[in-house]
């Protein structure tokens, strides 16, 4: 009986190990695909920004109120509002204008807010070449966001925190000009990097 129980335990161990390996490889494949997709979009965003800067427009009506909507550009069926740069990790990532699970598998996404209203929240997966290293950022590190109008806002990291997924109001309250958010490795909590414009 003990021998049979030992064999069953060994078989279950192999099955669980194979399942864990399969999940790991699937996650790696997703991360690699996301990295390829992001890297392909960055030059297209920069080109679109450069084209916009080369074609200055003359407004026919006086601007009566401050712009509060971010300019978007469509690439391969997705809308982008610009790109985020994190020099400490040599990262440059496109940011989609809206979020859902499909978009997050391609690039970080705006969760809420705008740069003009100083309450932008960008979320991304903890893929190796996306937001996996957010928890390694330190107070004083630099983050840049370049929008589709060619305006680059320089931010400085003010705090790095770990919060529960339910802390949406805390993250989106606008206490900081920019918040970058990703899951911890376990998925049970979120890493949030709070930044203020310089």
Major β-sheet profile: 9 strands, mixed
Strand content: 25-35%
In whole angstroms, the N-to-C terminal distance is 70 Å
According to CATH, what is the class?
Answer: Mainly Beta
Order of helices and strands: HEEEHEEEEHEE
Cα Rg: 21 Å
Shape: elongated
How many strands in all? 9
The CATH level-2 architecture is identified as Beta Barrel
Low-confidence stretches: 58-64
Helix content: 25-40%
Summed up, the domain count is: 1
Mean pLDDT: 85
**CATH topology heading:** Sortase, Chain: A
Structure annotation, total helices: 3
CATH superfamily: Sortase
Descriptive report:
The chain has helices at residues 2-54, 101-104, 168-172; strands at 73-75, 78-86, 91-96, 109-112, 120-123, 142-147, 152-163, 178-183, 190-197. The protein is an alpha+beta fold and 198 residues long. The chain has one domain (1-53, 70-198): Beta Barrel (Sortase, Chain: A), CATH 2.40.260. Strands 1, 2, 3, 4, 5, 6, 7, 8 and 9 form a 9-stranded mixed beta sheet that branches. Strand 6 (142-147) and strand 7 form a beta hairpin. The model is unreliable at 58-64 (pLDDT under 50).
């Amino acid at each position: 009986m003990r021998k049979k129980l030992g064999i069953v335990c060994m078989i279950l161990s192999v099955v669980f190990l194979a399942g864990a390996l399969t999940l790991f490889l699937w996650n790696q494949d997703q991360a690699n695909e996301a990295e390829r997709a992001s890297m392909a979009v960055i030059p297209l965003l920069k080109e679109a920004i450069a084209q916009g800067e080369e074609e200055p427009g003359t407004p026919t009506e006086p601007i009566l109120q401050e712009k509060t909507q971010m300019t978007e550009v469509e690439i391969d069926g997705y809308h982008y509002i610009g790109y985020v740069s994190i020099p400490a990790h040599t990262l440059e990532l496109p940011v989609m204008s809206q979020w859902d699970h499909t978009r997050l598998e391609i690039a970080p996404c705006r969760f809420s807010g705008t740069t003009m209203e100083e309450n932008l929240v960008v979320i991304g997966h903890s893929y190796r070449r996306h937001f996996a290293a957010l928890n390694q950022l330190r107070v004083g590190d630099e983050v840049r966001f370049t929008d589709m109008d060619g305006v680059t806002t320089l931010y400085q990291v003010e705090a790095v925190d770990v919060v529960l997924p339910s802390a949406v109001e805390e993250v989106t309250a606008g206490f900081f000009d920019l918040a970058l958010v990703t899951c911890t490795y376990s998925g049970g909590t979120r890493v949030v990097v709070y930044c203020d414009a310089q």
